[in-house]
Amino acid sequence: MRCRPSTIELVDLRTFAEVASRILNESWVPPCLAYEPDYLRWEFASPGPNPAIGVAAFDGDEPIGFGAAIPRRLRLQGVSRSFYLISFLSVLPSRRGCGIASALYTGLIEAVKATQVPVITFAEKGSVGQAALERGYARAGFRLHPLGSYQARGRLVGPASSLPVGIVTEEPDLRDFYEAVTPWHDDREILWHAPNPAGCVHLRADPRPRKAVIARGPDGQAAAALAILDETRTVRGPTHAAILDTLILRPGTSVAVLAALLDALSQGWLQERKPTMLTLPNPSGIEEALLREAGLRNLSARFDGYLASSEDHGSILETTATNLAVV
Questions:
Q1: Between 50 and 140, residue with greater pLDDT
Q2: Helix (H) or strand (E) holding 110
Q3: What domains lie within the chain, and their CATH numbers?
């Protein structure tokens, strides 16, 4: 293939959602999310001290690639701070092999570097994009720290489990939800998603239906999830999946309580939009045996995580995992 010259430009994300949606949907092979413009507009409006950043690759006036850095607020052992999540990186299939992914990474990384905000990023394990990511951060002078591997899990929606059932309640106020679950993980060395009040308001504005639920069992056992009902593209056509954006277990919680939570999420959506699949993109912090016993099997998607920074941010760079959703 003959590579034609391309340019990398910062774009105004307020007006670029339609174009980004087209590039993402043409670039990712099913099964994958349906990157609808309304969803992308919502992501691009994520609150934070620094706004979302978008870059696009152009062949003349034609957009052929895209990537974005989205604000996120994470917490480690009682200390919260702002990060950027670099994601949505995509290049049209007809234009791959010309170094465009590397150029997009470079453009995003340089824009983020000016903010001095640390970065979380994920790459498909063993992909060309993973190599481009690693080279891009090194060239920009970032310290790149491995943040573990993330094997997506899932199970088909079927009859409720025969395991003992815990008491499952829905939490309409996300501030109450996060206040309840924060003590479960503040002593662990995992970067946890910890939105502030403005972030909770933003999560509720997601155009996709959301539920925040907590299952409680005997002896203080508890499991909590923030879940989304999302459209998924498959080779057989679109379907709906219940996606666990966040899954947290109180230490010592049994598989029965986890199963009660998963059953409630599988069965609890509006009947006309009932999901066919329940997926967990990031199982960090949950024991392998519990996931397996609850029926969550390995899916094909597997990502490596990275934490990158051009500044010295102290102990936060020593963490080895995050529960941040892979998007």
A1: 50
A2: helix 100-113
A3: 7-149 (3.40.630.30), 153-301 (3.40.630.30)
